[in-house]
Every structure is written in structure tokens, then in C-alpha cells.
Amino acid sequence: MKQLFTGDILEVTYVRQVLCMNHKECTKSDSSCQGPGVRIRQQQIAPGFVQQVQVRDDTCVARGKSWRKGCEACPNGQTQPEEVKLTVDIMPGMKDGDTISFGEVADERVGHTAGDLIVHVQAIPHKFYTRHGDDLKVTLKVALLDALVGFETSVQQVDGRDVKLSKLTVTSHGEVQRVKGQGMPKKSGNGLGDLLITWEVTFPEVVNEAQKALLRQALA
Fold it and tell me: Of the candidates 70, 95, 120, which is a domain's last residue?
């Protein structure tokens, strides 16, 4: 979540298949090839009647061309592995499920344009915060006395900053306090979401008679 808050640059390495450098030397003319992976064959369906059908044939690499198997120019076949290094720019405010696209860097095949590599952002759950859109939610505890008389405290934001909190009125158990502009950055770059704090009031386990009398006097 901190990386999605502040932004980050990640170095990614993966292996793709690229064309053999001499692949053009390993193709031959083949009129029955109608395109990559497509061959036209004729079959007789009745005496004097012939039908043309399309069949899958991976040796067809382009219209009018097929691959010559066992070609010495490409002893390992049409493609060979290549290690690719990419820089992935994580922008502040990106969300779980967002994607980053790199054009035409997927596997290569003869007769095809390489596809795109799509990087999916997967957010690791934070220890304390949960994200809802651009807002952050957290549950904090407050002592009964502070809940009654008010208090000032602070909470550490995702990026490590201390956010000062102030509550001068009575705090109910389960009450949600909204702190404007202390949530996640908006991907548009226009400000931040809000911080939503759910307060859990903690009660003392034991109250003696003298304390009870003071409470009755103060709250009566």
C-alpha cells in the first residue's frame, strides 16, 4: 500500500520467445497457406464434387509461405528465448486490479505481430488500513475517560507521516470520524481521499465503590 501511496519504480525481468534471426531463410512458397496457421485443402465429397476446407496448420507462417522443418539457419525452430527487462512505473493512487500495458513485447511468431504484455497490479493487504476507493479505513481504540472528555492523539499514515487527530466532543463506541484529505492519493493527481476512523471505546475491567460514587456525582 505504501508503494501505491507514494508511487514506485519496479524492475521486471521475464523471458519471451523471439524470432530466429534467420527465420526468413527458413520459409518457402506454399500456395495452399492462406495465412498464419491456416491451410486450404481440397476434399472430395462426392464423385465430381470437390470442396475446399480450412484446416489448422502451424507450418503456415503467412499467406503463400510455410516453414521448412529442419532448416539449418534456425536449428531450434522459429523462435528462441530472450530475457527482457522492463521498468514498471507505479503511479500514486493506483488500485488493486489496475493494469500497465507494454506494447508488442509479448512472444513473437513468424507472420504475427507480437502482442502486448499486461502487468496487473495486485495490492498486498495492509496491517492496519483497508482501502475503499480513495478513502482509507482504520479502527482505533480510545479509553473511556478520553471518550468522555475529549482527546488529542496521532496515527501513522501509510507513508510514515504522523497525522494529528483531535476529538473534543463525546466519542461513542463505533463512531466513525472522517478526516478530510488524509486518504490515498487520487490517480488523477487531484488531491487525496479521506481517512475514516472507527473508534472503539475501551472500558475499565473494575470500578471500585469510590470511583462509582464519583461517577454518579459527575454524571447525575
Answer: 120
